[in-house]
Write a structure and sequence with these properties.
Order of helices and strands: HHHHHHHHHHHHHHHHHH
Number of strands: 0
CATH topology of the largest domain: Growth Hormone, Chain: A
Mean pLDDT: 82
Helix content: over 70%
CATH class of the largest domain: Mainly Alpha
Structural class: mainly alpha
Number of helices: 18
């Protein structure tokens, strides 16, 4: 008699915590490291916008210039530094050096750059440039005027790119076995969304009650910022302590770390250059569709973001109010994304298929973006439709709410259904396509999308001078890009279904052939025996 096999985990444990008790020593410190890094990322993300967008003689129009002229060069520089360090030192030492570099900058900012900003910022020369140059250069001048805030913006944004996506995930891929990754990585995603909720709550509490903290050496209006950066520095030191503890207590135990079975240590023969990756990319319609999807998402996010933050600044011109509101938005992004990741993504893919799930993000962004721009144009007198009354909101507040709704849905969809369907699209491909395609798409195309949105905004601002005047063209570009995105998803879905059905049929045929072969062998053995 055959014995029934007991499931590895119960129903709820398999859904929420598919971890053996013996694995806690390895997983819990990894989760804490990941949580603290993402907590800092979410705290810094709202601070960087608040400082530069609400500054005098600045506004949301500075964001496209920051992403092209500050973010892009800094990303190249830090990537170069990281590559040189990684070629010379072990991963643990590189982690400490890069973490120390970021923490040193944030310490310098909170102790020198921000307190003495009025003396350090070149207001006189910036005012002269403002008089000489057209209004469309206002964002570029603001970036120069507030160079300390520009540096903070770039370092806060690169914290996610370097410390989270490069160093943490590189470390996790190195020490995690394949069978562990299938269970652990889903928990990391939920932890990232939850950290956004925690960061939002902490930041709102510090803004509300920070003035009551007895810090005589810090002005009352600046205490919330001081306390938030103290939180960032404390979390960074906690990450260093946990990272060191893991290397001493966990990675020295063969039960938890075996280099031969680590995900990242499975070497691929030969070097893959970016030139080869892009050449391979353009020869594959399947990979081109994935490229269009990734680039389109990033362009759409950046196109709407600038107009929305411009409207938020109009409603909340004060830095404290702006920061508080952005933290509220971040909290709801985390709430929606966590709920979707827990209960929605897997069910959508299993029950409705890849194409339906992948279409959720562009259709949701299309709907919310149309609503946002419709009421934005009505507010500015650019349309003749009557604005609904009786909602209890002023028109600017309604525009801000719809932009916030669009931002919540787009970010939550990114962390749940978008990333899941994008990664699933690579599964039916052969090893060469996965390697070369992901190298080009994840390494360059996502950044190209972010820069592309900023370049579009820059060009329109140079020509039309203001965000309001350029908004109709931004909306038109957004509709075209989302249309291409939907077409790419539809085409990719057909090919994805063909590939998966073919692989399923091949696997079934191979299983039948193997079974038939075993039956033939058994019959031959019976004949020989007879």
């Amino acid at each position: 008699m055959s014995q029934s096999v007991q499931p590895e985990f119960g129903r709820w444990q398999r859904l929420l915590w598919p971890v053996h008790r013996s694995e806690w020593k390895k997983l819990i410190p990894m989760l804490l490291i990941f949580f603290l890094i993402t907590l800092n990322y979410n705290v810094l993300r709202t601070m960087k916008d608040s400082l530069i967008v609400t500054a005098k003689s600045s506004g949301a129009e500075v964001i496209p210039f920051l992403k092209v002229w500050a973010m892009f060069p800094m990303a190249i520089l830090l990537t170069f530094i990281y590559t040189r360090l990684a070629n010379r030192w072990p991963r643990e030492i590189v982690f400490y050096i890069m973490m120390g570099f970021f923490l040193a900058f944030f310490f310098l900012f909170v102790t020198v750059l921000y307190p003495f900003r009025d003396y350090l910022h070149p207001h006189a020369s910036a005012d002269w440039l403002q008089e000489q140059l057209p209004q469309g250069f206002r964002g570029l001048i603001a970036m120069y005027r507030y160079w300390a805030f520009t540096g903070f913006y770039a370092m806060a944004e690169l914290w996610g790119a370097i410390m989270l996506f490069t160093l943490f995930w590189g470390f996790a891929n190195q020490i995690t076995r394949v069978e562990e990754a299938k269970r652990f990585y889903g928990l990391f995603g939920i932890g990232a969304n939850f950290s956004g909720m925690v960061a939002g709550v902490i930041s709102m509490l510090l803004i509300t009650y920070g003035k009551q903290v007895p810090l005589s050496f810090v002005p009352e209006s600046e205490r919330w910022l001081f306390l938030q950066l103290v939180l960032v520095l404390t979390c960074g030191l906690g990450v260093i302590a946990l990272f060191r503890w893991m290397h001493r207590e966990v990675l020295t135990d063969s039960r938890f770390y075996d280099p031969e079975k680590a995900v990242e240590d499975k070497k691929v023969k030969g070097r893959v250059s970016m030139r080869d990756s892009f050449a391979y990319l353009f020869r594959s319609r399947y990979l081109l569709c994935i490229t269009i999807i990734v680039v389109a998402y990033n362009i759409v996010i950046n196109l709407v973001e600038v107009v929305w933050k411009h409207q938020v600044r109009e409603v909340y011109p004060n830095t404290d109010e702006f920061t508080y509101y952005m933290n509220q938005v971040m909290f709801f992004i985390g709430l929606v994304a966590t709920s979707t990741a827990l209960f929605g993504t897997g069910n959508f893919i299993r029950r409705c298929g890849w194409t339906f799930t992948a279409l959720i993000t562009p259709v949701a962004l299309l709907t919310t973006s149309v609503l946002f721009f419709y009421f934005f144009f009505c507010k500015e007198g650019m349309c003749f439709a009557a604005i609904p009354v009786g909602l209890g909101l002023s028109t600017p507040t309604l525009v801000v709410f719809l932009g916030s709704l669009q931002n919540c849905i787009s970010r939550a969809a990114k962390y749940s259904v978008f990333d899941a369907t994008k990664e699933l699209a690579f599964v039916p491909l052969d090893s060469e396509s996965k390697l070369k395609g992901k190298a080009a798409i994840d390494g360059v195309c996502s950044r190209l999308g972010k820069s592309g949105g900023s370049v579009i905004h820059q060009g329109l601002l140079m020509f039309f001078s203001t965000i309001v005047a350029s908004a109709p063209y931004v909306a038109a570009a957004l509709l075209v890009i989302i249309g291409l995105w939907i077409l790419a998803v539809t085409a990719l879905g057909k090919r994805f279904n063909e590939l998966t059905q073919q692989q399923t049929a091949d696997a079934l045929a191979a299983a039948k052939a193997s079974l038939a072969e075993s039956d033939d062998v058994e019959m031959q053995e019976q004949k020989i025996g007879a």
